[in-house]
Design brief:
Largest sheet: 3 strands, antiparallel
Strand content: 5-15%
Strand order of the largest sheet: 2-1-3
Number of strands: 3
Number of helices: 5
Order of helices and strands: HEEHHHEH
Distance between the termini: 14 Å
Length: 141
């Protein structure tokens, strides 16, 4: 379990740069790939406060939780921090919900084409694996 958690420390950054969605206003104009990082870059340009919140939820919360679990696995952090790590995992799940919601909303628009890309599945796997690991760790404690 601890080595799966360590792999998430590598997989999360890959998922942040991987394409989550391919979107186009009209199919004839080609598809543009959108990742967590490109979405955050656009958001920082338009709304810094919202960008800070999303950056915290999409980047810092899942990575801090994963790092915290790794420290617990190797005995460098007390198990008393598990409730905090579980809370961080719940914050990270909000991103998966928001991405899914945006896909549903965009598909409802008439002239917008949105396709999920492999990064969406990788990011979802990372978040769900982290939540399951913290949940199984909490049950053992």
């Amino acid at each position: 379990m601890k080595y799966l958690n360590l792999s998430l420390l590598i997989l999360f950054p890959v998922a942040w740069f991987a394409p989550l969605l391919r979107a186009a206003v009209l199919p004839i104009f080609g598809m543009r790939e959108i990742s967590v990082v490109t979405g955050l870059q656009s958001l920082w340009a338009s709304d810094a406060a919202l960008a800070l919140l999303v950056t915290t939820l999409a980047i810092f919360a899942p990575f801090a939780k994963t790092l915290g679990l790794a420290l617990i696995h190797f005995g460098y952090l007390s198990r008393r921090t598990l409730p905090l790590l579980a809370w961080l995992g719940k914050l990270a799940m909000a991103d998966v919900f928001l991405i899914a919601l945006y896909i549903v909303i965009a598909k409802g628009a008439g002239h917008v084409t949105v396709q999920p890309a492999w990064g969406l599945y990788l990011f979802t796997f990372c978040v769900l694996a982290g939540v399951l690991m913290s949940w199984s760790r909490a049950k053992k404690a």
